[in-house]
Each structure stands twice: as C-alpha cells, then as structure tokens.
Amino acid sequence: MSSFREQGNEHFKAGDYKGAEELYSQAIAEHSRSDPKVFANRALTRLKLQDWQGAESDARKAIELYGPKNNQAAMKSHYYLAQALLPQRHVGEALEEAKTAYAICLETRDSSAELISQFILKAKQAQWQAKETARLRQLNETLALVEDLLDQQLQRDIDAVEERYKKGDIGETGKREEIDDLQKEAESRRSIIRKAFQDPANPDSVERVSCACV
C-alpha cells in the first residue's frame, strides 16, 4: 500500500492539487512531521493553489528540517519560499532566497539554474518597481502639499480683496478683475510647480503619480 506522500505525488502529477495538498497534510499529521520532503512537496502544491502564506510556511519548515548541512537538498525549498514571498510583496527576502537557491544550483551544477535566474530577474524588476512606486507616491504627496499651500495663499489673497471691497476701497468691477488676476497667477504658479515635479525622462510622471496613489 502506497504512503500518503506517494499518493499525494500521484495526485500532484495528475493536476489534482487540492487532493495532493490533503494527502500531504495527512502524511504530515500521521508520521512525517520531521520529513522535509513532504513539507517541500506541500509547499509546491500550495504554490499551484496560490496559497502564498501556506507555501511560505511549508517552505520555511522544509528548510529548517533540512538544516544547514543539506543545502543541496534544500535548494528547491529556497526557491519555493522565494516564489511564495514575491506575491506577498516581500520582494527583498524573495530575491535573497532566490539568490541562495541559484548559488546552490551553480555549486551543484543543477539544471534549475536558468529557471531560477529568470525568477531573480523578475524579482529585481519587482524590487525596482516597488522603489519607483514609493518614489512616485512621495513625489505626489509633496506636490499635493505645495499645491495646498498655493490654494491657501490664493484664498487669503481673495479674502483680502473682499475685505477691501467691503470697506469701499474698490468697486465691484475692480474686485472681479483683481480676483481674476489672482486666480490666473495661482494657476500659472501651479503649472510651473507641476513642470518642476515632472521626471525629465518621463514627461507624464505627474499624471502617473496621481494614478499610483488611488
């Protein structure tokens, strides 16, 4: 009679990932709590099911059980951990785990090296994107603050004109003309500031910033 792990392997090969996960869980519960292979297999199965946290937990457990002396055997678990971390936006750690797996591949001449190198490139792109998103968010917040200060100044200037109108220092026409000039000047300043905040390499950066923070 085949073991739960072997049955799980068969279900996995057949594409029945949910069934495979259940069988691996049974194997762990009954007699494989210290078998890193079962945890590694369930980690891969959970990756297929897009259970990122479950896959992360299993991959970490497999690495722990393999121990520092079994790096070659733990290579796949490091890679599984990297794959589980990236969708959770733990980009830095995902990249480090992938690099660990890649280093083991090079050391052991494992054929997975090329596949993992592609993942490393993907993780680096995600890392750059995360930094760029943070930069744009900060840019957007700063621009919003400056524009808010401009609006406050405009309102103070308009209030001053209204006060002069109430005192009779200027007439209705003069009031409208001064307010119109103030609004035009404020819009001109706003335009200058937005241009100053644009990325020279990307003229649409100000518009992109707004979208990134929705």
Automatic annotation (TrEMBL):
<dbReference type="GO" id="GO:0006515">
    <property type="term" value="P:protein quality control for misfolded or incompletely synthesized proteins"/>
</dbReference>
<dbReference type="GO" id="GO:0061630">
    <property type="term" value="F:ubiquitin protein ligase activity"/>
</dbReference>
<dbReference type="GO" id="GO:0045862">
    <property type="term" value="P:positive regulation of proteolysis"/>
</dbReference>
<keyword id="KW-0808">Transferase</keyword>
<dbReference type="GO" id="GO:0071218">
    <property type="term" value="P:cellular response to misfolded protein"/>
</dbReference>
<keyword id="KW-0677">Repeat</keyword>
<dbReference type="GO" id="GO:0043161">
    <property type="term" value="P:proteasome-mediated ubiquitin-dependent protein catabolic process"/>
</dbReference>
<dbReference type="GO" id="GO:0005737">
    <property type="term" value="C:cytoplasm"/>
</dbReference>
<dbReference type="InterPro" id="IPR019734">
    <property type="entry name" value="TPR_rpt"/>
</dbReference>
<keyword id="KW-0833">Ubl conjugation pathway</keyword>
<protein>
    <recommendedName>
        <fullName>RING-type E3 ubiquitin transferase</fullName>
        <ecNumber>2.3.2.27</ecNumber>
    </recommendedName>
</protein>
<dbReference type="GO" id="GO:0051087">
    <property type="term" value="F:protein-folding chaperone binding"/>
</dbReference>
<dbReference type="InterPro" id="IPR011990">
    <property type="entry name" value="TPR-like_helical_dom_sf"/>
</dbReference>
<dbReference type="GO" id="GO:0000209">
    <property type="term" value="P:protein polyubiquitination"/>
</dbReference>
